[in-house]
C-alpha cells in the first residue's frame, strides 16, 4: 500500500516499530502502587461526576490524564454534523485560545483530506510509532515535531464520529498492548461527555419550552376576568388552577344591555397547551358573536356551530359548557348546558341541595347539528350556587378515590353571608382529601351567593 502522506512510501509500520515500549501511565504508576492508582482513578471519577458543563469536564479530564498518562501533544477531530470526507479539528495543543466546539463550531477548521481524515474515517484505533507526515498535509503544523501517535476513536451509533489523537515527540512511544485499555477509557469518557452535552441540550430545550409555556399561561390568564364584576343581589368568588402551565378551563362574565349578566363556565377536553389553545378559540368565538349573547341557548348554539365546523371536526376535541343569564331584579337564572357538570344549588332557607340540570345536551364541538334549549329557575336570598369543572369532583386521593359530588355538597353545608368563605371551605375539604396528590386536571370553582 503506497501512502501519499509519506512521500509515496509504505504506510505499514515495520515490525521493529511495533515493539513493546512502556506507556506513560506505567512509568508514572508502577504495578505495586495499585492503591495510589485506584485513589487517582476514584478522584478522577468523582470530579467528572460533579461537572455540569461539557467544556469544563474536558478541561478537568485533560488535566487529570496529564498526571496519569503524560503526553506531549493532542489533537481532537470530529465528523459530527458534516458530510464525508469533511471533518473539523475541535482541539489542539497548537492553539493558544480554547474554542468551545459545542458553542462555536463555526470557528473550527474544516478539512477534507490528510492523515487526520485517514485516521478518523478509518473508524478504528491506531498506533503509529514512527510518524512521518508530509509537509503537504493540511494539518502538518499540528503534527510538526511529533514522532508517535495513538488514535483513539469515540463511537456514537457504532461509528467513530470523534477521535482523540495523542502525540509524543519520541519515536516508538506507544505500546500497542496497552491500546485496548486506552481506547476503553477514552471511549467511556467520550460517552460521558456526549451524555453531558445531551443533558445540557435537553435542559436548554426544556427551559425554552417552559418559557413558551409561561407565555401561553400569561396569555391564557389575560383571557380570564381580571376582576369579578359587581352584580346586583349576587356575591361572587372564583378559583382557577391549571394542572400544567396552561389548561382548558374557562369562565367569563358578559354584561347585557338590559342589566342582566351572562355567566359562563367551560371545560375543554384534554390538558396543557392544546387545551389552552382551544380555550382561547372558545373565548374568541364567545366575544365575537353578533349581537348580545342572549338567550343562553343561542350563545351555546353559536359556539357549537363554529367549533364543530372550523376547529374540532378532525381533532376529537370538545368543550363542555354551562351558560346562565342572571337577572338581578327578579333573581331569575335562565340557563343552557352543553354536557357540563350541573352546578350545585344549596338553599339556605330549607337546607336542600339540588342540581341545575333542567336541560342538557352534547358537549360543543361534537356535531354541528346539536341544538340547545333554555330553562329557568328563580333563586331566593341565601341560595348558594357552585359552578365547577370536573377537575374538582374527579380529583383523586392517594387511594385513587374521587372527591365526588357528595363531598362537594358536604363542604357547602355551612351557610355563609359571602361567597369567598364558601370557596375556602371547598378548597380546604379538597386539599385534605387529595392529601398532597398533584392535580391531574384543571380545577375551576365559581361560587355565587344570592343576596
Give descriptors for this structure.
451 residues, alpha+beta, Beta-Lactamase, Phosphatase 2c, domain 1, six-stranded antiparallel sheet, five-stranded antiparallel sheet
State the secondary-structure class: alpha+beta
Helix count, per DSSP?
A: 11
Rg computed from alpha carbons, rounded to a whole number of angstroms? 36 Å
- 3D shape: elongated
Alpha-carbon distance between the two ends: 100 Å
Give the DSSP E fraction (strand runs of 2 or more residues).
15-25%
The CATH level-2 architecture of the largest domain is identified as 4-Layer Sandwich
Please trace the helix and strand order, writing H or E for each element. HHHEEEHEHEEHEEEHHEEEEEEHHHE
What would you say this structure looks like, in words?
- Helix content is 34%, strand content 22%.
- The protein is built from eleven helices and 16 strands.
- Helix 2 (34-49) packs antiparallel against helix 3.
- Mean pLDDT is 88; it is low at 1-29.
What is the topology?
Layout: H1 24-28, H2 34-49, H3 54-68, E1 73-78, E2 87-92, E3 110-111, H4 115-122, E4 126-128, H5 140-143, E5 148-156, E6 159-168, H6 179-223, E7 234-241, E8 249-255, E9 261-268, H7 272-287, H8 296-310, E10 319-327, E11 332-338, E12 344-346, E13 353-355, E14 375-378, E15 384-388, H9 390-393, H10 404-411, H11 419-434, E16 443-450
Helix pairs in contact: 2-3, 3-6, 6-7, 7-8
